[in-house]
Amino acid sequence: MTDNSIRSTGSEAKTGTDLTLRGLKTFVAVEETRTIGGAAERIGSSPSSVSQQITALEQAVGAKLFDRRGRPITLTPAGQVLRRHAHKILETVAEAQTELAELNLTALPKLNLSIIDDFDVSLTPALVSRLQAQFRNCFVSASSGRSDVMVQELVSRRSDIAIAAILPDDTSAYWVTPLLRENYFMICAKGVIDPDQEILPQLSALPCVQFSEETHAGHQITQHLRRVRFTPPRRFAFDASRSVYASVVQSGGWALTSPLNMLDAERFAPYIDVHQMPFPALSRRIWLIARSDELGRLPERLATDCRRIINRQTISRIVEIAPQLVNAIEVLHE
């Protein structure tokens, strides 16, 4: 069945007009938004093109589909009949497209992943291994870096799937699902904070090690500190978690960080103390992002694999390193 191969009968024989998938999608958009302008915006078309598609459909079925005299516009009896069939047809076509896409994936020659560097140890190797087992003839490439860079690789089509803490500016062309939420906490060099004394005056006297504001975490933390009106002097900032943790240890300072950051820099765990946030709570989400309708159900299956790996390996390792963080990370489902 192609876009122009659904033919009507009866009155269509007189007009020679076809029922098309494009026409049915336009019909459903108008039926759901109840306005020509709303339908045009939804499907990325113009109001005049939407009107032409509806007119062509009406010629094909030989009856008016909408009563356009009122606002919002409503379905006629013929439109109500077509509504039932249009939804069924479009659902069937979507299922067929997904199955065909999955069939084609068996011969996928290459899959490019962009994954934030916080997952370098805990997620990326296990995920790549699983993909190579599923697609034996597929070359799997995984790049690592900051969230903004990973998302840009996806937007510029240098990667097929991204895992990041931020989303593209326009998500309409992407399939997006959350993987986890993690709460920020505070680390400090071992022994420099007395938990029995008031925390904030002690922090004011210690070096604050910050993530670069070019990173999502750095921007998020800086904005949060401004909101709570605690703005330590900026002395140095780093992109990488390992550099932040190393500097905390060497300078005898403190930093706000996340469980995934801790996992990425676990070699420094013996030299730091973990504390709850001395400020109002702050958290971030990690998302899996893929372009819509290009990889069938692979992104959905990949998200399921990610959640399983995070549950079984990532969280358990974080809690091993710092038992205080047992409730600081949560796997999310769509």
TrEMBL record:
The keyword Nucleotide-binding does not apply. One of its GO terms (molecular function) is transcription cis-regulatory region binding. Pfam families: HTH_1 (PF00126), LysR_substrate (PF03466). Keywords: DNA-binding, Transcription, Transcription regulation. Residues 19-76 form the HTH lysR-type domain. This is LysR family transcriptional regulator. PANTHER family: HTH-TYPE TRANSCRIPTIONAL REGULATOR, HTH-TYPE TRANSCRIPTIONAL REGULATOR GLTR. CDD domains: PBP2_LTTR_substrate. Belongs to the LysR transcriptional regulatory family.
